[in-house]
Every structure is written in C-alpha cells, then in structure tokens.
Amino acid sequence: MNNSYLTAMVIAGAMAGLGVFLLVVQLIPAPPALGPALRRLHPLSTASNTPAGISWLRRRFTVPYADLRLLDRTTDQYFLTLGLSALFCLILPALITVAAVLSLPIPVFIPVGATIAAALAGAVLAHREVVSKAAVARAEFTRAMCTYLDLAAHQVLGGHGPVESLDRAASVCHGWVFVRIREALLSAQLQLRPPWDELKVLARDIDVVELGDLADIMRTAGSEGANVHQTLRARADSMRDRIRTEALAQAELRTNKLDIPAAALILVLLVLIGYPFMARLFVH
C-alpha cells in the first residue's frame, strides 16, 4: 500500500507541475499572430498545419466552428481551454483524494474515477461557456445588423451605389461587429470580389442569417440595379419586431419561473404557522 500511496502522490505532483507550467506559458506575451489576418485576407489559399493529436480530437468531438469564428478563436485555443479546464478540475480532486487515501482505507479506483469525472465535467463546462458566449455575441451581432440595414438604406436613398453604401454605412458605426464587417469589405476589395459575396461567406462562417440576407439584397441591387431602399427598411423593421418578440417571450418565461420559489416560500410559511397548532392538537 505504501508504494500505491507514493505513486499517487507522484502522479498528483506531476499533474500540479504541468498545470503550473501551462499557466505560466499562457502568461508569457506571445508574438503578433499574423496567421489569422492572412487567413482572413486569403481564406482559400492558406493551409492549416494541425498536429495529429488535435486532428484526432476534432474527428471524435463536435467542435462549434461557427461559434469559434464568431468569437475570433481558433480550434487550437478551444482545445487548449478544454484541456486547461479539465486539468484544473483534475488537480484539486487529485490532491483531496490523495489525502483521503492516506488517511482512509478506501479502494484506489474510487478516487481515480471521481477525479476523471471531475476532469470531464470541467471540459464540459468550458465547452458550454464557449457556446453561451457565442450565443450572446450572435444576439449582439443581430441587433447591430438592424442599425447597419438602416444606415445602408439611408445611403441608398442618398443616391450612392450598393458597394459605396455598404462601405459608408460600416464606416459610420463603432464596435466589434462593424470591425468584422469592415474587415470583410476590405478583404473583398483586396481580392477584387463583390462585397456581398464576402459578407455572405462571413455570414455562413459565423452563422448569422441576417448578414446573409443583407448580402442577398445588395447583390440584387448590384446585379439588377433594383432600388432596395424599401426592402432594407422592411427587413430592419421585421428584425426589430422579431427581437422584441423574443425579448418579451424570454421575460415572460423568467417571470413564470419566479412562481416556483414564491409557491415554495408560501408552503414553508404555512408549515411554520401550522406546525405549532398541529403539535399542540396532537399533544392534547
């Protein structure tokens, strides 16, 4: 048993040292990442050299590619986050289980199984955090698209062409959403491509349907010369109505959830009020 205790302590110390090393590596300033910028400018010409281990994980697990592109993260950063979260949740239970094994005669597979389960739970929580952040960012992107549609419609009404309308509307506003749109428009300009094609690619990559609808509308204006002012305004109004309806439904759902703790509180009060009476009745 002494050998098993020593082995468990060595493994726990090695895991703790690896976790500290990975945290220190993350704190060291990294050189500027030119790869993502080059991939945004030339998305079809840049090849990705992915390690064999990460490729194996990609084949075995479902990776939220659209969410990662929306958050401007790479799949390597995603798997690194999962690994660090799992390692953090692995170290603390490992130390606790080592202390428990040293003091209590319990089988080794019980703490080992609990430690592995904690690591898996940490990875799942990290994955859900990425998905939830992407959902919030996608909702913010959709709200910003209402403003972008109105601005593009105003530029079209002012007599500007579809390409110029998209550029001028994106240059007016600030924020990360419009930074992504301006990057897409700049990429289209450098590659001598129509801007609506680049916006369509961006909409497909980050899974924002509203941006794809704008690209389709402006493609119609660019190829057929149609007046899309009313179409853009109608699309912006319909998006605002949908966002308002979803917000009201979410507020109603949260209001209905408040009935459960209110009913539980009333039940507790009834028990506290009725218990003395019932106890006195049964005593007499």
Description:
With 284 residues, the protein is mainly alpha-helical. It folds into 2 domains: 2-27 and 50-136, no CATH class; 138-257. Helix content is 83%, strand content 0%. It contains 12 helices and no strands. It has helices at residues 2-27, 34-41, 52-60, 65-70, 75-103, 109-157, 162-172, 176-190, 195-206, 209-224, 229-257, 259-283. α1 runs antiparallel to α5, α5 (75-103) packs antiparallel against α6 (109-157) and α6 runs antiparallel to α11 (229-257). The longest helix has 49 residues, at 109-157. The radius of gyration is 28 Å and the shape is flat. The model is unreliable at 43-48 (pLDDT under 50).
- Quickly count the domains: 2
- In which range does the helix fraction lie? over 70%
**Strand segment count:** 0
Low-confidence stretches: 43-48
Rg, alpha carbons? 28 Å
Annotation field: number of helices: 12
Name the helix and strand elements from N-terminus to C-terminus, one letter apiece.
Answer: HHHHHHHHHHHH
Q: What's the story with the biggest beta sheet?
A: none
Nutshell version of this structure?
The protein is mostly helical. It has helices at residues 2-27, 34-41, 52-60, 65-70, 75-103, 109-157, 162-172, 176-190, 195-206, 209-224, 229-257, 259-283. The longest helix is centred in the middle third of the chain and has 49 residues, at 109-157.
